[in-house]
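tool_call predict_complex ligand=F0G
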Amino acid sequence: AHQWQGIIREYGDLLPEHLRTHVVTLGEGGTPLVPAPALSRRTGAQVFVKVEGMNPTGSFKDRGMTTAISAAAARGAKAVVCASTGNTSASAAAYATAAGMTCAVLVPDGKIAMGKLSQAIAHGARLLQVDGNFDDCLDIARKLAEVYPVELVNSVNPDRIEGQKTASFEIVDVLGDAPDIHCLPVGNAGNITAYWKGFREYAEAGVASRTPQMWGFQAEGASPLVKGYPVDEPETIATAIRIGKPASWDQAIEARDTSGGVIEAVTDEQILAAHRILSAEVGVFVEPASAAGVAGLLMRAERGLVPAGARVTITVTGHGLKDPQWALRTLDGADVEPQKVQVDVMSVADALGLV
Ligand code: F0G
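tool_result ok
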């Protein structure tokens, strides 16, 4: 029977040679592109969500980590390092383990979701909580990799971008052409850079007839690309994108401008409302940051900026189980308590309103 072989083997001829000589894979990619009628209805567009939480460690980072770790392994690297808001560290730890390497991760103290922390530790990473934010962690990781024998596997590593661009290939392969608009959350801006590269390459190769507009969305309290200057103390409940100084700043602006797209901010309330719609109306459970693309599309639809019938794809970047607490709170902040019942059929039937 056929099994998906991971993005390097599936898309090898579209990736640089040096990524293919020593493949380290956990079977990443091949994620579902799910039609979202609830979002189509609300926007008048034809909306699909690319469910990246279905990757082996539960986020899109695995696409870039198979390539970054494979390249590092081919060079004989023994150790890797990354800064992370959580998902990169979970992914780096898993792929480093698969490659027999050691992995060090720097995370902002107290600001990463429990599921992600738990993954990095489970996979045996040396996890250090830095008394600072993600941007501080990345500064340190970059300097460490310059001076010591450890390879940096953040998205400033071009091998990461090569892997992550395959998500665009998959979207075009499934739809038969590029969408009109592609929406996604933006934090450190590696992913918008990668998607734009993928869409452009498929258009240049003639696989797609065009490229989509790239619509990127940042959390309002962490929206340097929207403001036009770095944010010293980024704040948002969407901890994955709590970033004030995106490393791929110029590439994100380039993707926005050459695609005719936008980068805008959504509030934490809009993110949580979109999170709720995804889980309760579409059937896809994501972590808060992952709902930013949906929040942005809904915001622009309300302003009349989504063309009727447009084909829209949205990357939902990470799994809801990474950071599950948000489902257990109402939008106005009250705790959701599961109802308790007696051990008998009548009380259950009664509680369910069946009698
Ligand atoms: N969504 C999720 C769930 C993420 O974890 C990230 C980034 C993004 C969106 C934004 O992607 O940085 O390429 O613009 N997480 C990084 C990390 C920073 O360390 O896991 P980006």
